[in-house]
Amino acid sequence: MATTISKIPKLSMHTVRGGFSPLTPDEVNKLEYFFHRGGVRIAKVSPEIIVKYGSDVRVKEADTIDFIRENTQIPVPKIHAVYTHGPFDRPEFDAIDEYDTYIFMDYIEGETLEKMWPNFDEKDKVGIMDELKGHLEELRNMEGTYVGSLENGPVLDQILEYQPNKGPFTSVTEFHETLIDAYAKVYKGDVKPYLRGMLSTREHTIVFTHADFRPANIMVKDGHVVGIIDWEMSGWYPEWWEFAKAFFIWQFQNDWGSRFLEITPQYYCEQSAHGQMMQCLL
């Protein structure tokens, strides 16, 4: 008769800085969270500190925030501590990981651009978009040699979440072919030549990409951008990825989308192909 070995959760510290003393998992679980989606929760530890935690939170997001903070002028929260807790017995479909990750970081004072955009006048909107253009240019100026997350990690975007091959990929072509193959298995039509054509209208460099660039992830205060948040899917992607992801999510509820077109290169063919693939692969 097979013996079941119970998993004993343990805490493994990844990062702790400046004498910061992070709360334990039990202490965090007693906090009242103000955000909850899937395996992600966010709670205030103090007026200045929040903790983002759960089974769908990754250490890689904290590493990415550190990377952006060290290599750009883009406003991101300061990371104070990161640890994992586990393993836990979970159904395979219930979580990305059998470990929970806890990221303690600065709380950014302000409101989301999504909330504030309808209240802005023309001068405010022009100023905000000009600042965002500069931040996007900083990202695009960082070129990579592979498609994937930091430190030769896998692609973290949802499009490959249920696929066996998540990379990293040595070239844009290899990444494109992986997407096309995954889509063709679900669609079961002779669609590969069409998608290859849509994705090869030009040569693409690999650049650092936020991959979820939308008003809900942009913090503003007093008419200025004070934070870019939610770097969980970020990494090195083909240069068209930021455009495609932004317009896959955005539904043109207001003039944000039209103004976004003015501050970033456009990749309409690639975005169309991406949208078609996302509908089948998610």
UniProtKB/TrEMBL annotation:
Domain annotation Aminoglycoside phosphotransferase: ranges: 60-274
Domain of life: Eukaryota
Protein name per its UniProtKB record: Aminoglycoside phosphotransferase domain-containing protein
Organism: Dactylellina haptotyla (strain CBS 200.50) (Nematode-trapping fungus)
Lineage of the organism: Eukaryota, Fungi, Dikarya, Ascomycota, Pezizomycotina
